[in-house]
Amino acid sequence: xxxxxAKESKTLxxxxxxxxxxxxxxxxxxISSIELSKSRLPFSCKLTCICDxxxxxxxxxxxxxxxxxxxxxxxxxNRLLAGGQKLYEYLDSLPVAxxxxxxxxxxxxxxxxxxxxRIEVKYARVDLSPKSLQGKTLPIYVVEAREEPSSxxxxxxxxxxxxxxxHVIENIEQAKQVIDFYKERWLIEQIFRLLKNxxxxxxxxxx
Length: 207
What we know:
Blueprint: H1 2-19, H2 28-40, E1 47-51, H3 58-63, E2 69-74, H4 87-93, E3 98-104, E4 115-128, E5 138-147, E6 160-165, H5 172-183, H6 185-198
Parallel strand pairs: 1-2
Antiparallel strand pairs: 2-6, 3-4, 4-5, 5-6
């Protein structure tokens, strides 16, 4: 009974959350922080906003991009495409467009060993069909970077990134460029690690 009530509670919470406006959700910070950054930077700048899986939000994809602002987001959800197919299954059906090697930095938090990772690349233009946008579709490009098993050390997890981007991807070089952009998120994660627990311990501060 307790399990059933807990399951029902989670379901009701999910339904209520879907009905709330994005401005009322904690995830709105992804949109507001980008808009704030845009307001503080010179108008001549072209920006690429790089988000991890928490930034995979339909409203962000709809509202933020413009002529000078691009998005690059690691996919969190197996989204529905126009026509009824799912994103991940569609990617699985595509042929490998190319292969190349990236230098993968070590990451102590994930016990990841630094290595030369051999990456298979796929890319495509798709139309997302999120329920929250009530029938609208969102045109976007998707790039998949999957590490070949031969370059994965024993006990390590293979790299597998599915990236959504508003950058136009029409060839393998453009696909490799956004993969390399996303790879630099590691530097942001290291800054967070130093701020939060390995350096300043800012979350313990009374300020």
